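Thread: Modeling a multi-component assembly for a lab meeting

Hi all, long-time lurker, first post. My supervisor asked me to bring a structural picture of a complex we are working on to next week's group meeting, and I have zero experience with this. I have the sequence lines for every component (294 residues in total). Could someone generate the structure of the whole assembly? Inputs are pasted exactly as I received them:
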Amino acid sequence: MADLLTHVLVPYVLLTAASWRYPRIKSRWIVIGMAGAAIPDLVKIDVVLDEDVVASLLGVPFSYDPISSVGGLLLIAGAIAVFFEQRCRAYAYLVFGGLTALVLDGLRVFVDGQANFWLYPIWWRPPTPSLYVTSDVRVLLLAVLLCLAVFLLDRF
Amino acid sequence: MAVHYDAAYDDHWPYPTEDNLAESYDTHVGEQTLLFGTVETLDEGADTVHVRVEHSGGSFTMTVENMDADVSEGGVVQVLATLRPGQELQADAVAVVNPAGSSNLYKYAVSLLGALLVLVLFFRHWRINIERLSIEAR
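Re: Modeling a multi-component assembly
Sure thing. I ran the full set together rather than chain by chain. Output:
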């Protein structure tokens, strides 16, 4: 996956630009979109609690990978959205942010040209244009530059 | 979902998995596979590297032949290759995921920055009401 900073900057750029045309998109909702972009990265919980340990405790096959897929995103965003008064709105922003992160991840390099399981459970391995690897600094630089441009345009 | 995914994984992943190779390498010789490995040693003259591949019970080492990529020890590569006897891979295509061991540090540092940014912005616009168990606009 792209790094988390790139992930959260992308919905900021898209939603802020959209807010120029649709004033209903307030900055507090843009933040929820950014938070949504972090949902697929919750897969990194594996660093804290190894999935193989969970699998052996439960005695069934177990993987965190669906957290970083469309199916997992729809579920987790729902679990978060119930805490908001405007649940549907919160859900829409969380899912939007999460989708931008998943799409971005879907463009990563896979040497056989098929991406990982980000569209699970709809499509197991969609094709990928193999545009970048996560450690590629240019991806972050591009995101930061776009973010700065949008931030300045938004202010002035 | 977490259970279904893992149970169905092998049917949808077209190559022998790391666990398959750890359990019964010899039955997969001649097949193509896609592996992620950490570079342990490099032999640049011979285009050969030794990579460590993780599986659920530990790790094993593979020798990758025909390795045409710019990577240092500690870096991570993605290899599409044909399995040869004796834990050897004949690479068909290679991509460098992390050019060096420090790439992971970069990823974690930048990601931490992203997490902090979201947290700060979130609490500027929202607050958590513990009594009502809800998230409210400031």
